[in-house]
């Protein structure tokens, strides 16, 4: 059986085999970092209790009731308005049918698969590369260090990063030429790209969307320069504009509630770290992208820093394969530029686009460069000023480097006879490199999910009722001391919540009269030991301040709240409008998807129907003759 055809490209069977095999290899390489009896990354101590909290809410209220608030943390906090809420995410929905640990493992595999297939389609269908090169690029993206190490450490809101290739595919799809536009395809691309962006927003990944938009624009410009000069950039930006507009409309309720919440607790209290030496910054970029995590080097060269830099925060690796490809192909490309008349075809417009690409490529580097005046300017910018580090912007380079390496490989015709061998060697190098990489730091981490998993099983078996009865910092279960957010599994709300909105040291947390004890106890001022969370989002409308407690006269509301039942509170006028806009937009989007599915089924079924009807007609005409 031949593995490649006369063009030295792999056969469809090989493509299918690798599409099935590589995501499974990825899963089995990393599944051991999510032990059922053992130690997970520290941030799972934030998200596992939050996921169990979501299961509690769904158990009491059903699937379609919006979880505006939760009693499980800090005596009562916003849930839907929390920018890190994962209630509307794949891992949370999986939690409704299986335990949190299993849901994380399924999410890991599912998004690895989506990232691999998405990148393959992007290279194959949009960048028009052969299957062998597309598979190699997809394998490199599958094993990128950013996705897996964030998942290992518990940063699960980064998992939508793997949807980016499909997002880019949809926005570059059917906008390749300046000819006649297929309106139906144009609209469907926008709608499905919007669904991806909406998922990113609602699953807590808003913080990576600006990075991905920057990456998308750079890749679109590179596509125009390197692959398809007739690609309509105007049409691309129109698709992007409509995609963002639809996503904002559908997410209006979330955005308004979230901004109302975080505007009361600005997170600009920390200094913004950076690297004052540009050569050190470039060395850091190179090592983070192609070598092992340079976190020790980052700690040495970074100034204005108060937080520790862990290995996972500098994991962006695409490995040595793209670097080797670029080193091999650059001499050929330079020769081709000077001898093939490429420079003569470089018009003023193409030169301007190239300069724009180079400028945009410096943005992640600029955000991590430090001078006192530049740092002061960045601290004045929305979104940027709330960051504690901007190193995560380096993830912008992951898809860009892979795309450039794959396109460069295909530009060298002398290497075409070796496509299959390059693919096989490259994929083998990527897989073996990940299998034998030293990840000692990531094993046996700090968090044991035992209490959360036991509570989940007790809830499903009917032994546990969702409710919060106490405020506590630590609770005893047998001989074990339960701390952090896990106390919610035993009916207590965490006295000092792990909530980054209030600062990593809870500098802005309005504790007020919250103390360890029963939530329904009344203090000397006539307040219950339970906060009215509406004050965190709509303080004026509910005549309270952020962090205020329920009054003793509001015991009925408090009783409902502590038992995970919805309680009455007032929305702001802006929130009412945002809620209506979200419902209307969801309705329109749902109608379009129903129409799209119905039409797709109709188109698929109609040819077969016509073929069956055509036979007797032809037969009759033949008899008449």
Instruction: Name the beta content range.
Output: under 5%
Structural class: mainly alpha
Report low-confidence residues grouped into runs of 5 or more: none
Radius of gyration, in Å, reads 27 Å
Quickly count the domains.
2
Q: How would the global form be characterised? A: globular
Q: Give the strand line-up of the largest sheet.
A: 6-3-7
Q: How many strand units?
A: 9
Main sheet, how many strands, which sense, barrel? 3 strands, mixed
Distance between the termini: 51 Å
Task: Tell me the helix content.
Answer: 40-55%
Mean pLDDT: 91
What is the count of helical runs? 22
Task: Give a quick set of tags describing it.
single chain, about 625 residues, mainly alpha, three-stranded mixed β-sheet, two-stranded antiparallel ribbon, about 5% strand
Q: How would you characterize this protein structure?
A:
The structure is a single chain. The chain has 625 residues and is mainly α. The chain has two domains: 12-33 and 80-266 and 274-435, no CATH class; 465-562, no CATH class. Helices cover 54% and strands 4% of the residues. The protein has 22 helices and nine strands. The strands form four sheets. It has a three-stranded mixed β-sheet, with no helix packed on it. A hairpin with a 2-residue loop joins β4 (474-477) and β5 (480-483). The mean pLDDT is 91.
In short:
This protein is mainly alpha-helical and 625 residues long.
List the helices and strands and how they pair.
Elements: H1 12-30, H2 44-61, E1 69-70, E2 77-78, H3 90-95, H4 100-126, H5 131-142, H6 145-153, H7 164-172, H8 183-202, H9 209-226, H10 233-250, H11 252-262, H12 278-290, H13 295-301, H14 320-339, H15 348-361, H16 363-367, H17 372-378, H18 397-411, H19 419-435, H20 450-461, E3 470-472, E4 474-477, E5 480-483, E6 492-494, E7 517-518, E8 527-531, E9 549-551, H21 555-562, H22 573-624
Parallel strand pairs: 3-6
Antiparallel strand pairs: 1-2, 3-7, 4-5, 8-9
